[in-house]
């Protein structure tokens, strides 16, 4: 093969880019200090990204850094999974063989999916979201370990060609890289990033990360073009030449070089075609015939073509091939790749132009030659690329019979590397080819894989692969790579085919009830995740299909999914029985992942039914077993469900501990969707414990990272809840509306419907809209409060009862009160109180109902405080202390105890930032002349209970409280309307309120006018 050749750049002078190069070198300095750096370099094709990167890498090497470069590979329109990372890791292995081996020790099997040289890939395992996440996590940790004692620069070029798996790994790397002397620089062609380009969402996501810096390269200005021309020509260019080339190149550095070369070669500037392709082909067409032929072959072979493969396809004598390559390299058309094993075009624009210039038949013929050469000698390319490239060559050779088997093998390899997006693309290509492949070829294909619990169509050794099998694999691949819409389309297509194949005379499901049930179960999951429905109709169809069939993995999965649905939508004996059957069936067929999921659901339903300790023990056992088996998706779900159940039984501190571990686990494994669910549970428990600042930060983070609609809705729900508790009603209303929109109307569940209603009621109560409180409660509970809903229903009833108590004595509040209080009592009788936290809520509701009826008993409130005391519910305890203090003051003779209660509650309200509660306590303290500071002797109860109001102002306030206008007040008190208006203004100022309604409400709440309340 060709040895060392001159690869001098056409432009020997590095022009401009001082600011950009400074940014890169500053990042290198920070990395040297131990702070990892991430940068994106974008610009149009030919603007100078590669040259800037070369200069930076040269500077990095000069400073002693280890440099590893990887480029995204384009094979036709197909990217190789993880190509740039594989190439970069291969480079690190050559440079630091011992260090990389030590960093990968113990994980060689997993990391071999990226770098096959480490050994054989890990054996069979469930292929799901967590498998990919584990590979990503190990890759990041590998890079961090290598970069512990030395600075490493990882350069990834041409992200616009990156496959989906590469994009996901890069996003994970940028999000989770926190230590090590590592600089990651990625380049992309900005002019290729159209609205629907797959890189566009990644760029938007990375822009939101403060740890990622984005550098955009502009075109050269005239001065910089002048300097570039001076370097190329080694002489001062004529002003007219500078003007002409600047005008025609628009400052694109590569076009400047091409125009100069064309002119230096004797071309007339004005005689060249304005077509970019023609401009780029001018230098290629000046090569010899053999060199042009080699250029065309390399253009169709992919981003890089190995010398041996090129020789086999070119079919030239070796001396002629080497001369042709030397001519193309010296003309700066081709470059020898750094590892010395192949060639690529110096610029991708030239490769695209040469490829586009091929005739259709010529392109097919070249791809066939590549495929035949690779089949004849597989060692011509690396093993990790072999099948994917062969599949691409046969596909572009338009030989479906040859392409289909290889495409299917490539899909299996992609899955084994957890490259589910590439697996999906290959399977969709197989579906495209299926009908054009002769039956005799299809009959030789065998089931290649198993899509989770999907039963392969017959014995793998004797039964041919069916189109339905391919659809099942594609549906799972689409779901695992986040393409849920595509997954749903594939599932619907499969169900249509099954329906067409069924004999109308047979029962529902026809010849394939198990497979039909499996697809209906998939459809249920996708419908729920996409917010298109609650998924029950699909589950019911699947249950009917497997009814009466022998136990199978599909049967067990259907029962497990049904039980899981019941746990969320209709917890009770039927769901509990379904979970028990799912566990039994899964054990019979030895489907342990299905069994563990069913056991987790069973444990949650046991907790709901009151068998708390046994249910939690079952769930914790599942957590331990899934961790032991490295079933990361199941482990993540266990963290979510255990934290939720602990919160449901009032053990919020334990819930925070479990949820915190779950968040850490999900981040470490890259389980983005699971992280959203468990983070939502963590925030809920932090609110309960009074860790409101932590909860607020968690809700903000959840809003950013949530992958599915329901965790995103939960973020808005918690932000609305916190805003309401802190009296920020505008923010509360905004996030409440966003939460409703995100939850949608297709999948109603009490676990968010009742909390949404509770926040609605609390806002209405603070705005003195008692009618809306009553209507809202009636709407929320119109279908009754189902079993297991006590966790969400008790706070709802407490809000409604408190609103009734606060409104007692207000104009119009008395009408309908007996019915409203009776309704609340009726709902309360439906709710369970299985644990102390809900027993305390029941006492709280009863006390508020008594207060609403004018029976404000201090002993009753003392009982509520005693019940709440050990439960770590500081906000609810502060509210109860407030009410107890108020009742003691009304009763008289307990000012010291009341002062202590007010002071304790006020400290909590201030700490939490609960402004409405704090203001109520301060108003109560001011009315009763109670100190809020350090404990001190309490002054005797003052004779004046008028909050600083004069007797005449108290008379006016009494009439304001019953809804009198200024004119009516004047007539009743024999004063002028103007004097009445002055009194009302003074009253509003003294009470610190802005309107007559607020003044009336405050007067009643602070008992300023006891005779009105009578």
Structure description:
The structure is a single chain. This protein is mainly alpha-helical. The strands form three sheets. The chain has a five-stranded parallel β-sheet with strand order 2-5-6-1-7. Strands 8-10-9 form a three-stranded antiparallel β-sheet. Helix 12 (276-285) crosses helix 16 (348-356), helix 18 (383-396) runs antiparallel to helix 19 (400-416) and helix 30 (632-648) runs parallel beside helix 32 (672-689).
Quick recap:
This protein is mainly alpha-helical. Helices cover 65% and strands 4% of the residues.
What are the key terms here?
five-stranded parallel β-sheet, single chain, 1014 residues, three-stranded antiparallel β-sheet, mainly alpha
- Category by helix and strand content: mainly alpha
User: Strand sequence of the main sheet, in spatial order?
Assistant: 2-5-6-1-7
Overall geometric form: globular
Largest sheet: 5 strands, parallel
Q: Please, what is the oligomeric state?
A: single chain
Helix content: 55-70%
How big a fraction of the residues is strand?
under 5%
Radius of gyration: 36 Å
Number of strands: 10
Number of H- or I-type helical stretches? 49
Average pLDDT, all residues: 84
* CA(first)-CA(last) distance: 105 Å
Low-confidence parts lasting 5 or more residues at pLDDT below 50? 1-9, 267-275, 503-509, 936-945
């Amino acid at each position: 093969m060709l040895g060392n050749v001159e690869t001098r750049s056409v432009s020997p002078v590095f022009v401009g880019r001082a600011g950009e190069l400074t940014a890169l070198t500053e990042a290198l300095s920070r990395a040297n200090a131990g702070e990892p750096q991430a940068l994106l370099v974008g610009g149009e094709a030919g603007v100078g990204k590669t040259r800037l990167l070369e200069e930076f890498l040269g500077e990095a090497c000069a400073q002693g850094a280890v440099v590893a470069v990887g480029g995204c590979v384009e094979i036709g329109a197909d990217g190789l999974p993880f190509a740039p990372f594989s190439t970069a890791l291969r480079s690190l292995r050559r440079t630091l063989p011992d260090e990389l081996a030590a960093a990968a020790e113990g994980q060689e099997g997993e990391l071999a999916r990226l770098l096959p040289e480490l050994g054989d890939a890990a054996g069979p395992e469930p292929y799901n979201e967590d498998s990919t996440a584990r590979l990503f996590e190990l890759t990041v940790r590998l890079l961090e370990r290598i970069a512990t004692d030395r600075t490493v620069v990882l350069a990834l070029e041409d992200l616009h060609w990156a496959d989906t798996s590469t994009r996901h790994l890069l996003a994970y790397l940028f999000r989770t890289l926190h230590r090590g002397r590592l600089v990651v620089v990625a380049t992309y062609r900005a002019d290729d990033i159209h609205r629907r380009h797959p890189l566009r969402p990644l760029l938007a996501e990375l822009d939101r990360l403060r740890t990622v810096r984005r550098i955009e390269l502009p075109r050269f200005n005239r001065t910089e073009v002048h300097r570039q021309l001076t370097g190329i020509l080694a002489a001062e260019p004529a002003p007219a030449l500078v003007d002409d080339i600047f005008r025609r190149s628009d400052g694109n550095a590569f076009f400047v070089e091409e125009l100069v070369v064309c002119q230096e070669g004797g071309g007339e500037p004005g005689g060249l075609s304005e077509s970019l392709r023609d401009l780029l082909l001018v230098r290629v067409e000046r090569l010899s015939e053999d060199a042009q032929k080699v250029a065309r072959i390399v253009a169709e072979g992919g981003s890089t073509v190995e010398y041996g493969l090129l020789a086999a396809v070119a079919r030239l004598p070796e001396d002629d091939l080497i001369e042709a390559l030397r001519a193309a390299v010296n003309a700066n058309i081709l470059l020898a790749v750094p590892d010395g094993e192949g060639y690529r075009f110096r610029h991708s624009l030239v490769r695209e132009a040469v490829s586009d210039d091929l005739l259709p038949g010529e392109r097919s013929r070249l791809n066939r030659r590549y495929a035949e050469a690779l089949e004849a000698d597989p060692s011509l390319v690396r093993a990790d690329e072999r099948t994917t490239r062969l599949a691409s060559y046969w596909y572009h050779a338009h030989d479906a019979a040859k392409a289909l088997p290889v495409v299917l093998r490539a899909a299996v390899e992609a899955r084994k590397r957890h490259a589910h997006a590439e697996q999906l693309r290959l399977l969709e290509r197989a579906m495209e080819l299926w009908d054009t492949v002769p039956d005799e070829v299809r009959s030789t294909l065998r089931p290649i894989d198993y899509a989770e619990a999907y039963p392969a169509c017959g014995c793998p050794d004797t039964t041919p692969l069916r189109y339905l099998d391919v659809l099942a694999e594609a549906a799972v691949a689409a779901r695992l790579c986040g393409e849920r819409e595509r997954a749903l389309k594939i599932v619907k297509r499969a169900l249509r085919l099954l329906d067409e194949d069924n004999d109308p005379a047979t029962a529902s499901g026809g010849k394939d009830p198990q497979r039909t049930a499996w697809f209906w179960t998939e459809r249920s999951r996708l419908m729920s995740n996409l917010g298109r429905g609650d998924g029950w109709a699909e589950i019911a169809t699947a249950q009917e299909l497997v009814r009466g069939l022998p136990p199978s993995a599909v049967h067990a999965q259907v029962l497990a999914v049904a039980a899981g649905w019941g746990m969320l939508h209709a917890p009770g004996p039927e769901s509990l029985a379904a979970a028990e059957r799912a566990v039994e069936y899964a054990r019979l067929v030895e489907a342990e992942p299905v069994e563990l999921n069913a056991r987790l659901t069973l444990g949650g339903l046991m907790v709901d039914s009151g068998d708390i300790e046994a249910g939690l023990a079952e769930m914790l056992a599942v957590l331990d077993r899934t961790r032991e088996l490295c079933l990361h998706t199941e482990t993540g779900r266990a963290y979510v469900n255990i934290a939720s159940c602990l919160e449901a039984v009032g053990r919020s501190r334990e819930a925070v501990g479990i949820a915190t571990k779950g968040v850490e686990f999900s981040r470490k494994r890259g389980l983005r969707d699971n992280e959203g669910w468990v983070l939502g549970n963590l925030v809920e428990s932090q609110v309960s414990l009074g860790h409101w600042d932590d909860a607020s930060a968690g809700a903000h983070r959840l809003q950013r990272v949530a992958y599915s609609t329901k965790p995103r809705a939960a973020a808005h729900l918690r932000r609305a809840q916190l805003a309401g508790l802190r009296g920020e009603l505008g923010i509360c209303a905004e996030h409440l509306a966003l939460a409703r929109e995100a939850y949608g109307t297709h999948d109603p569940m009490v676990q968010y419907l009742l909390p949404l209603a509770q926040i609605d009621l609390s806002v209405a109560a603070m705005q003195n809209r008692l009618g809306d409180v009553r209507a809202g409660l009636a709407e929320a509970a119109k279908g009754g409060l189902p079993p297991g809903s006590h966790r969400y229903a008790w706070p709802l009833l407490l809000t409604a009862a408190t609103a009734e108590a606060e409104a007692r004595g207000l104009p119009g509040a008395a009408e309908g009160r007996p019915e409203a209080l009776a309704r609340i009592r009726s709902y309360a009788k439906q709710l369970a109180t299985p644990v102390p936290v809900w027993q305390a809520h029941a006492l709280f509701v009863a006390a508020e109902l008594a207060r609403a009826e004018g029976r404000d008993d201090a002993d009753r409130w003392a009982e509520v405080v005693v019940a709440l005391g050990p439960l770590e519910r500081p906000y609810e305890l502060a509210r109860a202390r407030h009410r107890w203090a108020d009742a003691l003051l009304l009763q008289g003779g307990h000012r010291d105890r009341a002062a202590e209660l007010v002071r304790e509650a006020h400290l909590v309200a201030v700490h939490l930032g609960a402004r409405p509660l704090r203001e109520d306590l301060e108003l109560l303290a001011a009315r009763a002349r109670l100190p809020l500071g350090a404990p001190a002797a309490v002054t005797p109860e003052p004779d004046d209970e008028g909050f600083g109001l004069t007797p005449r102002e108290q008379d006016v306030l009494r009439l304001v409280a019953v809804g009198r206008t200024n004119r009516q007040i004047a007539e009743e008190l024999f004063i002028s309307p103007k004097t009445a208006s002055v009194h009302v203004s003074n009253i509003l100022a003294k009470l610190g309120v802005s309107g007559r309604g607020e003044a009336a409400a405050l007067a009643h709440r602070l008992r300023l006018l006891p005779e009105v309340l009578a």
